[in-house]
Design brief:
By secondary structure, this protein is mainly alpha-helical. Helix content is about 75%, strand content about 0%. The protein is globular, with a radius of gyration of 18 Å.
Length: about 210
Amino acid sequence: MGVRSISDRRKALAKGAGALALALFCVLAIALMQRAGWLDGLNVGLMEWAGQARDSAIGQHVTPIMRLASAIGGTAGRLVLLALSLGVLFWAGRRHCACWLAAMMAGGTALNLILKQIFAAPRPDLLPHLDIVHTYSFPSGHAAGNMMFFGALGMLIARPAGYWVAAAIIALIGVSRVWLGVHWPSDVTAGWIEGLGWLAFCRIWLPARRG
């Protein structure tokens, strides 16, 4: 490996670490603003709108869709989808991609659990919860986990349509958590940022596309 190749690799690794550091800084900033009450107007306003929308005639038909999206994006649903994805990748001979996906998801899940314990934010109580929750609220595990998972699938598919579909699923699952009353919008935003930062970090630091 030449000097230029080593230098380029070091620059890439620095960018990956920088992306994760920036994401974590943004998550910390959102947490501090949320605790200081600076986001109350936005959080309360959006959640009150969600409450009004779900009590409307149309909203009663939307809620089952939101429940389904939340279930698919939950821990159990994500594990099933991950197992299926790993099986497809191994069957297609993309063993390195499968190992990368598994390692990325394991590390990202651990990161989210650690952040939840650090911030120890209670769940919002503005609306009745339409989902059973037992963990802390910030940052959203649904938002972070599905940004990582579906974002990774989009990267591995490496087609424009794959990215658009992944983005739509990620957005729907995130919105569903606010609709169901179990997360503030800022919880979801922080989860998306966390997941994106971790995904960028793993894209460079782990051999995702080798072979």
